[in-house]
Design a protein that fits this description.
Elements: H1 2-9, H2 24-42, E1 44-45, H3 48-53, E2 58-62, E3 79-80, E4 83-89, E5 101-104, H4 106-112, E6 125-134, E7 145-150, E8 153-159, H5 160-165, E9 169-170, H6 172-177, E10 179-181
Parallel strand pairs: 2-4, 2-5, 5-6, 6-7, 8-10
Antiparallel strand pairs: 1-9, 3-4, 7-8
């Protein structure tokens, strides 16, 4: 669990790109989410074919809703397994081929609930921000990892079935900190 302590040292002062500051509590929550996303990525192993396709960088994509906002700045210059982390906005399903991770807001998840963005066997790690409500322990179709609220803290749920179908491998260290949801293979 020591690697989560590293999160504390990563917090810095961040201004909104437009010069406005976010409310401190909201910015702090986004910083925690940013560190979660970075640290989760460090404990995921993508299939070699996916790594070969994006060898120069690890691309974190988002659609209409930017979950991290200006808090992305605290993870901007970090890398995951030697691959620099970059953020990319996508505006269509066709853009997902350039992504290694997809970070969805709750609204984004609802938009795609009936028409999933990603094939179940795609090695795209789908992370959903569901921290607006208390965790239900429910597995969400197409979501590998859900950031959830547990009391006043943020934790995460892992849908192992979805992870296995995607040919992604999660470290046992990561799984020890997660709540496993959905059917296990």
């Amino acid at each position: 669990m020591g690697w989560w302590l590293m999160c504390l040292g990563m917090f810095v002062s961040v201004m909104n790109v437009h010069g406005e500051t976010e409310p401190p509590e909201q910015l702090q929550q986004k910083k925690v989410k940013a560190v979660f996303v970075l640290n989760v990525a460090k404990f995921v192993r993508w299939p070699e074919t996916a790594v070969q396709a994006h060898r120069d960088q690890l691309t974190l994509c988002y659609d209409q809703d930017d979950v991290l906002g200006s808090a992305y700045e605290i993870i901007r210059n970090h890398s995951v397994n030697g691959r620099p982390l970059v953020r990319k906005w996508i505006d269509s399903k066709e853009d997902l081929g350039a992504c290694d991770m997809l970070l969805l807001s709750e609204a984004g998840l609802k938009r795609y609930r009936n028409a999933p963005l990603v094939s179940p066997d795609s090695p795209l790690l789908v992370v959903a921000d569901l921290t607006a409500h208390k965790s239900t322990g429910e597995a969400y179709p197409g979501v590998h990892i859900a950031l959830v609220r547990k009391g006043s803290k943020i934790g995460f749920d892992v849908n192992l079935s979805a992870v296995h179908r995607s040919h992604l491998k999660l470290s046992s260290r990561l799984l020890r900190l997660a709540r496993i949801v959905g059917d296990e293979d």
